[in-house]
Prior knowledge:
- With 244 residues, the chain is mostly helical.
- It has a single domain (17-201), classed as Serine Threonine Protein Phosphatase 5, Tetratricopeptide repeat.
- 46% of the residues lie in helices and 2% in strands.
- The chain is built from seven helices and two strands.
- The protein has helices at 17-31, 40-59, 69-75, 106-129, 136-152, 155-166, 172-188; strands at 87-89, 92-94.
Amino acid sequence: xVEPGNAQVELSxxxxxxxxxxxxxxxxxxxxxxVHPDLGKPWFRYGxxxxxxxxxxxxxxxxxxxxxxxxxxxxxxxxxxxxCAWAKEDGHVILGSLDGxxxxxxxxxxxxxxxxxxWEALETARRCLEQKEPSFLLAQCHLRIxxxxxxxxxxxxxxxxCKKALTYCxxxxxxxxxxxxxxxxxxxxxxxxxxxxxxxxxxSSAFPDASGASTTGNSAEPMQVPVRKRKRVSGExxxxxxxx
Length: 244
């Protein structure tokens, strides 16, 4: 939901998630860990790019700069594929509702996988950026996490992420941007708009609570940096550096 060319100045829109994923791998391998202050921006760029691709896939558009997820939730049209019947109420399309003989849809499965990877990348970016002085990039990270939660249908949680983003905004322009973002999500989160059924095809457990992500333990091996159709190894957690 961050405006193209403004709040997303850190994201190069001409680079695909695959290219940015390789950049994360290269820098992660050089540092020897996943969570490091210098990895905040690469993780953010990768996660935001992947989320942007998901947003564009939902709308069927490839607008430079990407649509925001609140607009996606408001205006999206369910994809034209075999058994996909997404939950929709009052104009809102929510990922994850399946309707078909085998309850399977290849496109939806790919979106679910990419959405989980985008969440992991943005959460890792947040952990990295929290090790540095507060910055607008950290605010942007919270805004993109809010976009992801909104796309998933968790609008109340998205509002809370926007409020966190406001605490890292310093200039009037940054604050105005975050407040505009927040106002849109608060409108979507009104009680009469929040009665969309919980998505069945996209389990909430796939996305850990952001408030507890920074307390996860370290793994012996660095986590993978998955791209489309490449799942992360089950049970792995981002490995933090012991020294910076």
